[in-house]
Amino acid sequence: MTDAHLIDGKAIAADVRATVARQVSALKDSHGLTPGLAVVLVGEDPASQIYVRNKGKQTIAAGMQSFEFKLPADTTQEDLLAQVAALNADPDVHGILVQMPLPGQLDENAVVNAIDPDKDVDGLHPVNAGRLSLGEEGLVACTPQGCMILLERAGAELEGANAVVIGRSKLVGKPMAQLLLGANATVTIAHSRTRDLADVCRGADVLVAAVGRPEMVRGDWIKPGATVIDVGMNRLEAPDGGKAKLVGDVAFDEAKAVARAITPVPGGVGPMTIACLLLNTVTAACRQAGIAVPSV
Ligand code: NAP
Q1: Number of H helices, E strands in the chain
Q2: What φ, ψ does residue 101 adopt, rounded to 5°?
Q3: 205: domain CATH number?
Q4: How far is CA 132 from CA 16, 179, 268, 272, in A?
Q5: Among 16, 191, 200, which residue has the most ligand 1 atoms within 8 Å of its CB, making it the best to mutate?
Q6: Is 122 annotated as catalytic?
Q7: Which residue of 93, 233, 271, 278 lies most exposed, with the fewest beta carbons within 10 A?
Q8: Contacts for 3 with CB less than 8 Å, ≥ 6 apart
Q9: Residues 6 or more apart in contact with residue 105 via CB below 8 angstroms
């Protein structure tokens, strides 16, 4: 059997960002509307700082307005909620993202719940989670939305397919399962209490791993010809103190010998998340203005 087709998330994300840039340009020309994304960062977590910087850069590169708010690590709940309320009320801000995780004194759920659901471009507000589960129009969490685009671009047949999602987080696993269900797949959600996980996975035409355990999914868990989406991002420190290596939840070399198509880590799902954040910001801006997303 030949090796699996590599699903190139980097190239597909670049393509999505180019589409967003064309949409933004069309919105400026036709309606004088510039979508705006506000990102709130509390504290100095180095990884979060990198994410926020990248989001800002890509927002500007797509022609949108980027607003960044850096609050000190000892910010109170009251002050953070006041910041969110100000952004909810700002007509130039169409999307709001509060970078997680937040310092321990802050209640993440209360902060997410305070964001106007129509500006919740992370798709984490209970209203948006509810809309997704009811099959209604809302804003969809970025990473699973990115996975759906990758599946589509990889030509995966979803209708009637057996799809297994490993992981049931609010951020990835649950919305991923809802999206696959919406695409008429037969969906199984596996988690840490699932019995015979390897066996469950062997039935999957489409396998999505969102666990956070390096290379947990082995080659012999994969159905020959399956499409594999690896959401995991696990940093393995080099034993000699050298450069850390990023690996997914799937043992890539084993899996690519069995699957039909597979995402690499890095360069698979990762780049899609920010691209979908930009897509969501355009969608949010258009809905708030009562206009259709330009077809470009
Ligand atoms: P999470 O909130 O920690 O959820 C992990 C899920 O995996 C849980 O549902 C857990 O089950 C399940 N799990 C843990 N150990 C398991 C095992 N041995 N067997 C089966 N299931 C197991 O993580 P997350 O936020 O969903 O993220 C998952 C991974 O995706 C992480 O590596 C994260 O870094 C990565 N990620 C990547 C992106 C991206 O842009 N590429 C975005 C978000 C997340 P229980 O519910 O039973 O505990």
Answers
A1: 10, 11
A2: -80, 155
A3: 3.40.50.720
A4: 22, 8, 24, 19
A5: 191
A6: yes
A7: 233
A8: 256, 257
A9: 74, 76, 77
Q: Domain range holding 52?
A: 30-118
Integer Cα distance of 23 and 16 in angstroms = 11
Nearest-atom number in ligand 1 for the CA of 268 is 41
Both 101 and 54 in a single domain?
yes
24 Cβ neighbours under 8 A, 6+ residues apart: 34, 35, 62, 63, 64, 282
Please name the helix (run of DSSP H) or strand (run of DSSP E) that holds residue 66, with its range, or none: strand 65-71
Q: Which of 7, 172, 274 to mutate to test the pocket of ligand 1 (most atoms within 8 A of CB)?
A: 172
In a domain, 201, yes or no: yes
Residue from 210, 214, 218, 212 nearest 247 by CA: 214
CA separation for the pair 243, 144 (Å, rounded): 29
* Sign of the CA dihedral with 152 first, then 96, 231, and 240 last: positive
Residues 66 and 111 in one domain: yes
Which of 8, 23, 55, 174 is flagged as catalytic? 55
